[in-house]
TrEMBL record:
InterPro entries reported in the protein's UniProt record: LS, LS/RS, LS/RS_sf
GO cellular component, one term: riboflavin synthase complex
EC number: 2.5.1.78
Protein's organism: Hyoscyamus albus
The protein, known as: 6,7-dimethyl-8-ribityllumazine synthase
UniProt keyword annotations, A-Z: Riboflavin biosynthesis, Transferase
Domain of life: Eukaryota
Record GO biological process: riboflavin biosynthetic process
The UniProt record lists the keyword Transferase: yes
Pathway recorded for this protein: Cofactor biosynthesis; riboflavin biosynthesis; riboflavin from 2-hydroxy-3-oxobutyl phosphate and 5-amino-6-(D-ribitylamino)uracil: step 1/2
Span of the signal peptide: none
Pfam families listed in its UniProt record: DMRL_synthase (PF00885)
Length: 84
């Protein structure tokens, strides 16, 4: 909601924004790369949250989502902005 409100405050038209949901942060990179390769978008803003628990799973998910978004931008040629 906050990102959408900010876009509206800067006069970005609602019809120029697509919101895409993924099952979890781990999948953000794959979806960002797919969207980037479509050549439909000028940029992709990847937003998510990872909640730290009692296991090391948190570190693995954060590392995977970070490298996934980086790879998506490099492989697609579309800027992918990391906001996890």
């Amino acid at each position: 909601e906050g990102a959408l409100d900010t876009f509206k405050n800067y006069s970005v038209r609602e019809e120029d924004i697509d919101v895409v949901w993924v099952p979890g942060c781990f999948e953000i990179g794959v979806v960002a790369q797919h969207l980037g390769k479509s050549q439909k978008y000028e940029a992709i803003l990847c937003i998510g949250a990872v909640i730290r628990g009692d296991t090391s799973h948190y570190d693995a998910v954060v590392d995977a989502s970070t490298s996934g978004v980086l790879s998506a931008g490099l492989n697609s040629g579309t800027p992918c902005i990391f906001g996890v």
